[in-house]
Structure formats: C-alpha cells, structure tokens
Specification:
The chain has 178 residues and is of the alpha+beta class. Helix content is 44%, strand content 22%. The chain has a four-stranded antiparallel beta sheet, with helices on both faces. Strands 5-6-7 form a three-stranded antiparallel beta sheet, with helices on one face. Strand 6 and strand 7 (144-147) form a beta hairpin. Helix 2 (21-48) packs antiparallel against helix 3.
Length: 178
C-alpha cells in the first residue's frame, strides 16, 4: 500500500518513525562472533581440563558460558531484526500505519486501547543495546506491538499515541486531506 493511499484513509501525514534494523543486525553479528569465539576457546579448554581441579575448569565454564550466552543473544537479536525488517510507523491525523517488510497495517486511534511503557533500563549503554526505552501498543483486537529505542524518537512516538488515544489530542498532519 502506497503512502498516498494511507494518507487518504487516515488523514494528513504528520511524521514517520523508522526502526534502525541495520543497528540490530550489527549487534547480532557482534554477539554471534563473540559467542562463537568464546565457545571455540571454551570447548578445547573444557576438554583439556577433564580430570583436573586447577583453574582450568573455572576458565572453561567462563568461556563456554560467555560463548553460549553470546550465541543465544545474537540469535535472539537476529530473529528480532528479521521479524521487524523495514519497520516504520507513520503517524497520521486519525491513526497510524505500521509497516513491516512491505506490508502496511492501518491502525485508527480507536483501535488502540492503550500504550504501556518502561521509562528506561538505567544501566550503562542501555540505549545502545536497544533497551533504553520500550513501550507496547495494545490493540483492541488483543494484539500488541512492541517499540524500542531502535525506532527513531520512540519516546515521542509513545507520547503522540498516548495523547491521541487517552486525551483526544490528535496530531496535525500536513498535505492533502480526504
């Protein structure tokens, strides 16, 4: 569905919030490489430490643990990137459009029940990991869309949706109106 068709159904276009999946893929790559390296070094150390009680079993456990954790987190981030490829949110006067991998879903403000969010992780580098701010868009159909800091201006998007759904303050679009 082209953006002009969406604009006719949901009113004037106000803003777009794109998700940076390139950053997700880079994180997945780093995690997968670190996990593979940790596992590759951990397996020989674990095999060599069989029958000993010196520091080798502890080192093997550390390397294998870090390696497997890196692999698991890398796979999780890769799946997340694939599931949300080309994701963006277009805000319009009467709703928003959620686009993922070439498909667009029209979501009028009346179809959104509420927005729930977490203000932030608070740990160092949380925003860089995509965990600095997350929120969920709860749909009337029972579905839920999760948005995190990989999406540009995620906090602003959450505020716009909250104002439209809870306070009846709808965004002002630009361009043609139906």
């Amino acid at each position: 569905m082209r953006r002009t068709e969406v604009a006719r159904q949901l009113g004037g276009f106000a803003r777009e919030h794109r998700t940076d999946n390139g950053r997700r893929l880079r994180q997945a790559g780093v995690m997968l490489v670190a996990g593979a390296v940790g596992t590759a070094f951990g397996i020989p150390v674990a095999v060599a430490s069989i029958g000993t009680t010196d520091g080798a079993p502890g080192l093997a456990g550390l390397l294998l643990g870090a390696g497997l954790a890196g692999l698991g987190l890398g796979i999780w981030r890769l799946m997340q990137a694939l599931r949300t490829r080309e994701q963006s949110f277009d805000v319009h006067e009467r709703g928003l459009t959620h686009r993922v991998a070439g498909t667009a879903t029209l979501i009028p403000w009346t179809d959104i029940e509420r927005v729930s969010g977490k203000s932030g992780d608070g740990r160092p580098l949380a925003a860089a990991r995509g965990m600095g701010f997350t929120f969920d868009i709860h749909l009337g159909s029972g579905g839920k869309i999760r948005v995190d800091t990989f999406t540009a201006d995620a906090g602003e998007l959450a505020q716009v949706i909250h104002r439209a759904v809870s306070l009846g303050q709808f965004p002002q679009g630009r361009g043609r109106r139906p």
